[in-house]
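Dig into what follows:
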Amino acid sequence: MRQPRLSSVVERRLLVNYRVAPDAAARLLPGPLRPQLVNGYAVAGICLLRLGSVRPARAPRASGLRSENAAHRIAVEWDGPDGVETGVYIPRRDTASRINAWAGGRLFPGEHGRADFEVHETPGRIRVALATRDGDTRVDVTAELSDEVRGSELFADLAEASRFFRGGSRGFSATSSGRHLDGMELRTDAWHMEAVRIRSAASSFFDDPDRFPPGSATLDCALVMRGVPADWRPLPALVRGGASA
């Protein structure tokens, strides 16, 4: 079945980024993916995403749905037919939406687990907390708007960080079959990111010493995208250990 292109408004896309030891990141990646390095580090993080007006691309905006979602991500590269390609690997996606959880992997790429979210937002401050229904993952992040990326060892400034994440707009998600990775690409003509300063951040995924030995994953920076119209386009599945299917 052909999967539809989806339209939406990115109401809030908070990217909380960690600099990670390359060997720790590599252990979490299926072939043919490898960590994309920046200044000698792998880049990983959490995408805390609220989407509005989600609907098939030709449907009226008023018919769209709204949902809170989260994705744990690792920036990756792989060898494509025309050279090195970049994107992100997503070991797990979670959502507050029953519709997303049912439709993901069926009507559009990306299998989702269910999670309960707690969100508090003002124009200058964002708090997003979540706990997955399977008990595996908890996240609690508080951030405030900033005029620039500060203290990052990955990026010199906001412009450099924004360019990097725009280049990682293709995401490949783990699937329950284990045989392939679902692919989805974010496209927008209105790309715009703002810097935020993390006030507090806890993640059972990145704080897990079995997954990331002490010192191998360090909080680096965060950015936010708000009020951006965006399309989500299905990509050919990526065969684990091989090429696209």
Helices lie at 22-26, 98-103, 158-166.
